[in-house]
Specification:
It contains nine helices and no strands. The chain has a domain of 73 residues. It is mostly helical and 164 residues long.
Length: 164
């Protein structure tokens, strides 16, 4: 080696040369962070709607269950409701187009008694709980008397256990 090359190797970089130097990339150990695709998000929604276990869904995607919960949180929380809504909209559209099977299914799903909210009972001062009747009890009409009789038909008979 010549004196010139030795001097270049051992010479320190000046501040100007350091500013021009390319920054080094940081070395990251391990594998890269998982990045879900739109296709995988849709697949998770479908599998969640089918009530598949989180561990099985993760296995299908080739990831761990904690990774599934971390990256697909929204799909896990709303997948069932979204897919159910999509099916109901499709069924409704089909029913409106004349599909009688879809019409019957919609009526079965939306008919009386299938509401998630209990129907409100009409509370009057005479029927309020814990309120003693004031004055004479009003006379029931024909239909109200029939409904009351139908609800209490089995009381005191062998049929009581079967009707309730």
């Amino acid at each position: 080696m010549t004196a010139k090359t030795t001097k270049a190797v051992t010479a320190k970089k000046t501040p100007a040369k350091r500013a021009k130097a390319k920054p080094r990339k940081a070395l990251v150990a391990g594998r890269p962070e998982y990045s879900p695709t739109l296709e995988k998000r849709q697949k998770v929604e479908i599998l969640i709607a089918a009530r598949m276990a989180h561990e099985d869904i993760a296995r299908v995607l080739g990831i761990t269950a904690p990774t599934l919960r971390k990256h697909f949180r929204e799909e896990i929380l709303t997948g069932l409701a979204k897919k159910r809504a999509e099916v109901l909209v499709a069924m409704h559209t089909s029913a409106l187009a004349g599909n009688t099977s879809a019409q019957k299914s919609m009526l079965a799903l939306t008919g009386p008694g299938n509401s998630p909210v209990a129907p409100r009972e009409r509370i009057t001062p005479a029927t309020a709980p814990g309120t003693p009747p004031v004055g004479p009890v009003p006379k029931l009409g024909k239909k109200e008397a029939q409904v009351l009789a139908a609800h209490t038909a089995g009381e005191g008979s062998d049929w009581e256990g079967l009707l309730n």
